[in-house]
Amino acid sequence: MKKVIILFILVFLISGCSAGSTAGKYKKLEKKFVNIAEKYYEEVGKIKVVGIDQHTIFISNLNSAGYDTSELIDPETGAACDENSSVTIIIGDNGYSTKVNLICGSYRSE
Questions:
Q1: Residue 18: what pLDDT?
Q2: CA dihedral in degrees (45, 51, 56, 60; nearest 10)?
Q3: What's the first-to-final CA gap in the chain, in angstroms?
Q4: Can you give the pTM of this predicted structure?
Q5: CA distance linking residue 20 with residue 18, whole number of Å
Q6: What is the distance between the alpha carbons of residues 60 and 39, in angstroms, rounded to a whole number?
Q7: pLDDT for position 49
Q8: DSSP assignment of 68-106
Q9: pLDDT tens track for 7-62
Q10: Sequence-distant (≥ 6) Cβ neighbours of residue 80 within 8 angstroms
């Protein structure tokens, strides 16, 4: 009985650790996506958007503009993230903030 409990605890710890590392991979991927979108906004979007307080940038926009999105790959499947994934630039009085909507396989940003 003791061995079963120990085995259960080990399986729980191992599965918990791998789930945490997977979540971390997606958070890193979200950060890469935001960095690319911010670069696009600074170089292209700021010029085109005047008087609007939000600007949504999709992976498809980045691809069309020639930005490198090759690193936006689902760490679980190796497939490219959905082109409908987006970063919304929210413009405020003191700069801007971002909201990410990354869609990669079964992962969706919260």
A1: 47
A2: -40
A3: 40
A4: 0.75
A5: 5
A6: 15
A7: 58
A8: --TT-B-TTT-PBPPTT-EEEEEEETTEEEEEEE-EETT
A9: 555 444 454 444 457 889 999 999 999 999 999 998 987 666 556 788 899 999 99
A10: 69, 72, 73, 74
CB 85 within 8 A of CB 58: yes
The 3-state DSSP class for residue 38 equals helix
* The predicted structure's pLDDT at residue 97: 92
Residue type, 18: S
pLDDT value at residue 44:
86
- The two most distant CA atoms of the chain are separated, in Å, by 69
CB 89 within 8 A of CB 96: yes
